[in-house]
Amino acid sequence: MCIAQSSPSLVSRTVTLALIAACALSISGCARNKSKGDLPYVARDVGTLYSAAKTRLDRHDYKVAAALFDEVERQHPYSIWARRAQLLGAFAYYLDADYEKSIASAQRFLAVHPGNRDAAYAYYLIALGYYEQISDVTRDQKITQQALDALGELSRRYPNSRYAADARLKTDLVRDHLAGKEMEIGRFYEKRHEWLAALMRFRHVVDDYQTTNHAPEALMRLTETYLALGVPAEAKKAAAVLGANYPGSDWYQRAYKLIEDHPAAAAAQPGA
Length: 272
Prior knowledge:
Layout: H1 8-29, H2 46-58, H3 62-75, H4 80-95, H5 99-112, H6 119-131, H7 142-157, H8 164-191, H9 195-208, H10 215-228, H11 232-245, H12 250-261, H13 263-267
Helix pairs in contact: 1-4, 1-6, 1-8, 2-3, 2-4, 3-4, 4-5, 4-6, 5-6, 6-7, 7-8, 8-9, 8-10, 9-10, 10-11, 10-12, 11-12
């Protein structure tokens, strides 16, 4: 999984695992790649089932743990253990990298217990499930947008929760990734001399992702495309914004040289 030029998992994986482990202990204290059908139905009391699931989780046997937590919910749906099992099952699926089932379990928990004190953790697991599936910028970014939406939902609903800071960090990384995708497409169009299509992509980065690492290059590319389209005045404006915000960057030096070397733009310079 790549985010722009670096992986967000590498940047914040330690923080993520610390948070989810802490919450898992809290949930259990206060109390797949297999599906539900993979375990034969054997009627067991709720305490035995839950303890077996927790033991498997502690042994890092995540597939079996998730299936056993599902059994708690299936056999004893109205017990307090079922609520705990839903979240710990989602956690076990996450650790097993079965993100679709983790998301589904957390969403089911929220559907039944929207006001529960552990709802913030469920939203966090949903966001992590999408986040861990983000692919590199050469691929479709639907999952990336879902991750951004889920992180935003968590931050809006629980801005003071223990997960909010990590959600904000991941939001910045996801936005940078989405901006990187726009830049890749823009550069592709630019190489083909499809200037208007390129312009739209670079403009999108400048307007909607101006706090990302891609903004300086987007402004320089806007300078290029405006000059190619024969609109030197707009090219100068883009270069001026670049110079005002990133005066020492290589991107500004390139934009300045483009303006200086372009006859129509140079002729419009004050004192020319």
